[in-house]
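Quick log. Single chain, no ligands specified.
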Amino acid sequence: MHDALASGEIDLEVNAPGAPRRLVPITHSPFLIGRGVDPLRDLQLSDSRISRQCAAILCEDGRYYLEDRGQRHGVFLNGAKISKHELTGGDSITFGVEGSYELIFRPSVDDRSIPALLDRMQHITTGESSPGGLHKLSLLLEATALLHSRVPLASVLNTMLDNAITVTNAERGLLLETDPSGSLRVRVARRGGGRALTIEGIVPSQTALRMAMERRAGVVTEDLAREETDLQAAQSIVAQGLRTVVAIPLYSVSRANSDESAIAETSADFLGILYLDSRHPAAFSQLDRKILHALAVEAASILDNARLVERERERQLLEHEIGIARDIQQALLPRGLRDFPHMAISGTNLPCLAVGGDYFDVFPLGQDRTAFLIADVSGKGLGAALLTTMLQGALSGLTLGAEAARVFSHLNRFLCEHTDVGHYATMFFGVLSPSGELDFINAGHPSPFLLSGGKVSEPFGEGSFPVGLIPEAEYSSARVQLQPGDTLVLFSDGVTEAADVSGEMFGLERFREVLEAKSDASLEPLQMSVLHEVQRFSSGAGQADDITLLLVRYRPSNAT
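-> predicted structure:
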């Protein structure tokens, strides 16, 4: 039973190697964490070293707890192994494996924010007395309070910019942020008196913006007429008669770190610029400069959090779409494989991502023949999944009596004309008759193994190119005669190329040894033995490719 929680009150900051950090809201209790949980409801972690359901976050009497739910390497809170422990803001959650996920527990209102703010205010005001200082400090307090509020983002940014204009007595202020290409665009524009400013036609000083980005530090000029600076000759400065210009770069650093020199040394992401200007000279006290910089830090925090929220929304939408694609793909795989009068069947597909580029199929052709195939599309993910679905639809035409070789040739030309270079599929297609005659086409796929009389061979290596690779490729079928009890083991290269932690591959020889040792087993135990050995060999390393197996055993119709 899942208890619903107020949306947005608690988040988990998810940090994964090589991926941008993101925020995931905790919307119910227990909130599950692990490799095999529902990605649309709980937090799914893509690391084979993490258990399918390794931990949970519980809400009990208004308090949040982290509970170990069976992570084989242990669940750690701030570096200490726990079974169940209460969570507080900023706690770090890890799973006992290096180079994996770290989760940060993020309540919306951090109970440490008020003491931190008081410390900052004490630091800012030490040794200085300034007219209006109390009012300006109240603006900083308002800005920090807004950061933790549930006021719409646009209102928060407007107020932040209005406060910066008040501190500097500027005539206008802009909040510029980077777009996906890295260029700056105006997100908010305000003028004195808390009034909106039309974004169209605004011309901030490009020289000031460039200087702030190059220095990784604020550009603050009180009177351009009295300063020796490149800004004096800047075209936009002269044209608009500007006397005061402020440009402070914004970076995704901790709000506790308000030291501008530390920002200059950090490798944090560049978010944008807080820009203010005026046609009148100004006089900034030390207090004014410190408050202005503190406001810029708060603005950076707001932009950074907004980006995290937007990324999370995009992630949830993508996962929803991937979930639909996964359901469609799984629905197209044969369900409840049944044995045919002249053959027994067993098969499995384990995609390395939510959707994959492998598939297999089994279907009757007329009254006495049965077709089976396995395909491996280049690449992984949604693109490969879409191509597998197209292939499956095209090959379904074989049930209408079309000649297999002609269908393959047509499909190859179609893919070459309509897909990008590098998108192709290897396939093995076979048709088995009750008399044991196997007609097959190998389109660049690894030869299936043939288990016959306790021995393993690879008699199906010859064939043509993968479909979708060479427009001029031609396809023809070949025939072999199977004996009663002969078993074909069709597989994708995710089996033989499964690697251990050192990078060594499982390989054909290990595969062959498993099959020879279990050659007398029925199909499902034989299939499970292969999967078990592959998983045991690659334990500790992530699954890098889809794993697909299809086992076909010939048995004459009159066999008992």
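The domain at 333-554 is CATH 3.60.40.10 (Phosphatase 2c; domain 1).
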